[in-house]
Write a structure and sequence with these properties.
By secondary structure, the protein is mainly alpha-helical. The chain is about 70% helix and about 0% strand. It contains 4 helices and no strands.
């Protein structure tokens, strides 16, 4: 049991930065999907706008991944405060399970996006810079695999 009474400043900062980025990513993902649908519907949207949106989303996702890995490393080396006294065993398990499930989501979602991006044909331009092309992971380069991995992401 930890004797720490509060999280460190680094842990708190990482918590709020990652939380804000994840919330922003959800809304931005909806926006980029709307752009893609507008492009396919023949509306006044260019392929460049859609590519910019997708590359920005992917770049931000990688930043979330790196920050989440840093947060996990910090958490493993700097224990947080213990659970409040008086919690039942099931409440302790639920709190601990939820805590670690969020780490799985914070790391798993960007990894899923990286897999989906690696299966897609267009390159990922980090920070929309054509000189910073993200290398693809060794995954199947098929439309079926890309579609499934994108849906899971």
């Amino acid at each position: 049991m930890s004797t720490t009474t509060r999280y460190t400043g680094v842990a708190i900062a990482l918590h709020w930065v990652i939380a804000a980025m994840l919330i922003g990513m959800v809304f931005y993902a909806w926006h980029m999907e709307d752009l893609k649908h507008a492009l396919f519907a023949g509306e006044d949207v260019s392929i460049g706008e859609v590519q910019f949106a997708y590359n920005a989303h992917k770049t931000t996702g990688l930043l979330v991944l790196f920050l989440s890995l840093a947060r996990l490393a910090w958490r493993l080396t700097h224990p947080g405060p213990g659970l409040p006294d008086g919690m039942t065993r099931w409440e302790q398990l639920a709190a601990t399970g939820t805590h670690w499930a969020f780490y799985a989501i914070m790391i798993g979602m960007p990894l899923g996006g990286l897999i989906a991006a690696s299966a897609a044909e267009p390159p990922t331009l980090l920070f929309n810079n054509p000189d910073l092309v993200l290398p693809k992971l060794p995954v199947p380069q098929t439309e079926g695999f890309q579609s499934i991995s994108a849906s899971l992401h």
